[in-house]
Amino acid sequence: MNNIQDLAQEIVSYFTIKTRENGKTFICCVTNTPGYVSKLIMNCHDDTLPDNFKYKCIYEFLLALSEDQHPEDIENYIEPDVYNSDLLAWLSSHAYRTDYVNRAVNEICNSMDGNFDIMKTIGQGQWLEKCEILHALIAELEYILKKKKKRNK
């Protein structure tokens, strides 16, 4: 395993999609996931409790990386959810997400001519979180590769 694509392919194999009794799907890890994968996921959660949104982002980013997409390309295609109900569900799922929206307000208000749109601002907050997750994931993958190369010397 010499590159991020190979490592992403390996790690994504430890994820599975399950369905809750209410019919909603969620992403989680299989039983007996290696410790380094669990640590990667924990570090991508940035000291927060396990979260369905973060698991979904990690999984989708790993899939994209496993298909040889470059991290910069992935970031260029990150978009917030389309439906207002999904954005509001994201916002209300954890209190810390208001921090992302507050950061988005500061960024957007500095670039707008008074045409404030709350849903666009919430979407921008979600975009910021997705980018943060992607950057944490890339850093973790690079760290794992570096450790594996040192062990193989």
What count of domains describes the coordinates? 1
Query: H/E order of the elements?
Result: HEEHHHHHH
* Tally of helical segments: 7
Give the overall average pLDDT.
Answer: 89
Distance between the termini: 13 Å
How much of the residues is beta strand, in percent?
A: 5-15%
Uncertain parts: none
Rg, rounded, reads 17 Å
Molecular shape: globular
* Helix percentage range: 55-70%
Largest sheet: 2 strands, antiparallel
Total strand segments: 2
- What is the structural class? mainly alpha
Strand order of the largest sheet: 1-2
Looking at this protein, list some descriptive labels.
single chain; 153 residues; mainly alpha; two-stranded antiparallel sheet; 7 helices; 2 strands
What do these coordinates show?
The longest helix is centred in the C-terminal third of the chain and has 34 residues, at 118-151. A two-stranded antiparallel sheet has the order 1-2. The model has no long low-confidence stretch (mean pLDDT 89). The chain is built from seven helices and two strands. With 153 residues, the protein is mostly helical. Helix 1 packs across helix 3 (52-66), helix 3 packs across helix 7 (118-151) and helix 5 packs across helix 7 (118-151).
Concise description?
By secondary structure, the protein is mainly alpha-helical. The protein is 65% helix and 7% strand.
